[in-house]
Amino acid sequence: MADSSHKIAERLILINNRCVGILTRLYNIKKSCGNVNSRPKVLTEKSFEQALSLVTKRFPVVDLKKNSSTFASVDEAKIEILKNLNPYYYTFVHLLELKEQVLQQLTLMDANQFLFDISLNFDATAAYLNMIVNFVCAMILMSRIEERKTIVAIYNVAHELANGSAEPKYPRLAQMIVDYESPLKKLNEDLSPMHRSICCALASISEIYKRRNIPAEEQRSSGMISLITAPKQMLYAAQTTTCACEFLSLDLMDRWIIFCVTVCHNTLLAVDSIVDLFYRALRNGVCIRLFRDENILVYSMLQNYFETIKGYHKRTQELKDLFNVTIQASVSLHYHRRQFLRGALKDLCLLIKDQPGLLGPKILFVWMGLSCAKDEILWILRHSQAWPTVMAAKKTKEQSDVGINDKAIAELLFYMIELQSLVQKHSQLISRYHAQYIQGYDAVVLKEMLPTLTGLSEREYTLVSSSVEDLSNIQEGNCDLRGLRLDWFRFQALVSTFHSQFKMSAHKEFTHMMNTTIFHSKMVDLISDLIRETSDLSIYCFYFSQFDFQLKQTLSLPIQSRYSIVYAHICSHFIYALHDFCPEEHEDIMERALSHCNAVLDRLGSRISEIVGRMTNDELALSQKLSPEACAELVSRVNGTQKNVTDILPGVESYRVDRDVVTEADKNFVYLMDLCNAIGYCKEIVICDHVFAPREFLHTHLENEIISTLHNYLRSNSGDPPKRPSEMLMLLSSQIIVIQNMETCLRFDLNHFLTNTLLQQTQIHDSHGKDTLASIYSRWYLEVLLRKASIGQLVLSEHLRSFVGSSDLVPLPFAPEQYTDTRELRALVQLIGPYGIKVMAERLVWHAACQINELYKLVKDHRAVLTKARINFDKPDQMRECVSILNVADAGKEKKQSKEQTGAATGSPIESVLQRVTIIGEIIAFRNMLYDALKDVIELKIPFLTNSLKGLFQSADPLGKVQISEMCAAAGIHTDVDVALMNVIQAQAQTNRMKDAEEHYNLTCLLFVFIAISLPKLASSKLSFYKANTKASSNNCHVIPLAVNAMASALFFYHNHGDIQERMREFLALASSSLLQIIGTSDAEQMEMHQSVFILLENLIKDSHWLHFGLLESCFPFTMIRSSYSKCYALENK
């Protein structure tokens, strides 16, 4: 029969494609029915249980009339059942049609007495064997679907109830399901008549299979996939008479041999060469691939099948012996193969990266290497899954179990992915080389051979001559040679029959040349398909447990961690598992690819951040050894009783005595470098139109690691005070050192990364709404440290420029000077930056403004008395009367509520005023300390910009200075007017809806009168004693001048009367008059600390921009201030 009437080549292509599609649908049905969440609704509802049980039990014949009550629930939901089970039912119908098509095609080819030889008619032989194996796998997979009878029968029942008749194809379909209950037995009946063709095809692959299926030692000695064994031949094109067979999958050939021999065992096992081939294939492993992750334990299958056949006892015993040999030898065989392939593929990668031009002549070596590696990956995946089942049947666990878990599998995968990327990157080079090679050599040789061909029919000659002509006119650009290859396939189908006058075996030279040319043509326009054929790793989509285990194992091994990124690249292969016949699984596989890739990159970023954390701890430990505390401790031990200090001094760890000794720090550094090389391997990974940027995952994890480490270290225990800013800065510096080291092998914008990460810590909340370093420190300084200062437990020392404990008798949970001295505040500035200092200053000033509001309430309550005192400040009797009124404790209800709300102690109005002004002074003093620290840091960091700002500030007029005050505050420069305080007062005034500005101005004037006449009250307290060595008083009254100056500049500038200087003069006159009235009176003995209070006037002048010492001399003799200093110094020494 002529091929032209039957289109055998086209039918083989279509049937094989349909086989794969049906296999995909059957696999999807099996997985769906096996999953509770995806099972068809009809199989899970209790109302259908009785009907399902009945149709399964009496399959295939079911009498609806006798069992009408049983099928009542089915009758009610028949439309829904037909709709839900329609894809399942017609999958089995399509399988039935496929079975008929395959058997018809096999019968046709057997009737034409096809002569198969894979070295000659490669396309026809491979397609023929693929069709048989795919058909066998489809029937076996169908028999593994436990619900097949139930689905088919219940669908037919619903169809009969809905239409009054059974589904037309149901009888034949049901018969097929019954026949293939024992699939191997039925397949043997169907395929045994074609044993001659099958035997011919298998015999032709014998030589190739034996050449390919060799141990690693022979592969290494033969120079397989090695370019350096024959360096003189490196630039010559790789030539062989069987190019397409050289990278034919060994796993595929195993399936051809085992399945074909199994279904035709009664004839093929009588041929010695086939038996030898069969046993060689069996020795490769204990299971073979059915479809995706569906595998068959081949020895169990064969033994169970052969035991049912008479006369096969000897064969069964041979299989058992062979099984024991395979258990012992196969694991070691494949382990050494993988070991060899790792080295061989690595050499290929290095050579091709150095000389990409080698891809032209030596691309065959790449396909061979990728194909061998893929076979080993498939082997280890299915055996890792099946091995526990196999070993469970053994009494003892052999040592071969160790080799199943290959810890270096990621390295082999990595070189496969790298070879793929190199081929894709230089695909145009490969295409151009082979297009020129075909045009310049292959086509010329074929034209010379064409006249020597004999026995060709007109159609056959037309196919060959047109193909040669097309090859002669091949272009280097984008060309489609699929038609040319199909014509060669058609030619093979035409001349492979026994009746053809043209014998390929008689024209081997031409056939081999044509096969080689067809291989070269695939290098022109089919590179992507060859990559998929030789290195498709989509199988990992269905081996999630192995995927996850290998990833964890790779990340846990430092030496393999550099290859961990390969698992993210594997996810891009999942799309290869899709088939047009099964669109319903597309979304699931795409989601699986995306989620797996995301998980890989997430784990990789997490592991890097973990190593960064370890190295940070090491760096922090080294920094702590060089800290002042460690130095002081070492000095104290040396100067103490311990004369022989044997501690290892800092820096000793840098001396390497032995190069073979690897420290833990070295291990962490190498580990980090390998992980960084992994995540920096590529800029992006494209999966299903989604782009993954590995470095972005790293940035996210590093940011979380830095911030979480800082916050965890800040508060080691919830009840303890936070770590000192210098300690936190030491930790942050350690983190930056580690990241800088990491930047040496992973290029990314470190400055941009740190700016984005740390800038959030300068705000009140970060991007996740959590507290930042700035908010935590500002809250602690304000609510803990300054509150203790307000109740007299802490004293602000102007000499030490920090807060210190007021008394050794009062225990404190922390040393205040370790949080407020210049070094610590500078460290705080470097931690939270100018933005963070601004946040702290705003909170501090807001609390100061709240105290000012409470002072206004006191002024309103005693307005009449204060007005009288303001008028009669030069009349001692009336002033004493006013002061005595203000010295009486006010028990009014409103006053008590106000004091309770603000936290002030109950007492006289004068005491309340003094306490609140002192609190304001403490807040302003601490804020000024922050500004001073900020100024020091900024001058060190950006001196030129700071000098420019200073010049601008000094050249500006008073109003201009106010306008640039916010910029000055950001640089730590103090301004004449406290604009920040003024802005908060203005905002609170608007909140309180203050309408009468003149009234508010008068209250402000009276407030300063109140403060001035309250100052003598300080002299009656021993806590007001001024200590010269610390420049401080125990009750912090020495900060009152600072508070007065800040309040005056803010309040009077806010009212914009332009009388700040006049109001300050008035305050100075009232204060000096009130203090002078103490001298020479009976109150002088009670107010024994009046000398300490006199010093406040000098501080007022020093801190004020509106007053000067000449004015002070006119109001208060400076000699009294000098004598006060002497008196205080004498009393302190006494």
Structure, described:
The protein is mostly helical. The chain has four domains: 1-203; 426-535, no CATH class; 539-637 and 662-746, no CATH class; 780-1133, no CATH class. Strands 1-2 form a two-stranded antiparallel ribbon. Strands 3-4 form a two-stranded antiparallel sheet. Strand 1 and strand 2 form a beta hairpin. Residues 1-5, 396-402 and 891-905 have low confidence and may be disordered.
Give the SSE layout:
Layout: H1 3-6, H2 8-34, H3 49-57, H4 72-76, H5 78-111, H6 122-143, H7 148-163, H8 170-179, H9 183-191, H10 195-204, H11 206-212, H12 216-221, H13 243-246, H14 250-263, H15 265-268, H16 272-282, E1 287-291, E2 294-297, H17 298-306, H18 313-354, H19 363-392, H20 409-425, H21 427-449, H22 458-472, H23 482-495, H24 508-525, H25 527-535, H26 544-556, H27 566-570, H28 586-625, H29 628-639, H30 664-679, E3 685-687, E4 690-692, H31 694-714, H32 725-743, H33 750-759, H34 773-790, E5 794-797, E6 802-805, H35 817-820, H36 822-861, H37 863-871, H38 876-886, H39 893-902, H40 909-941, H41 943-955, H42 958-963, H43 965-970, H44 979-991, H45 997-1014, E7 1026-1027, E8 1032-1033, H46 1040-1055, H47 1060-1076, H48 1083-1086, H49 1090-1103, H50 1109-1115, H51 1118-1133
Antiparallel strand pairs: 1-2, 3-4, 5-6, 7-8
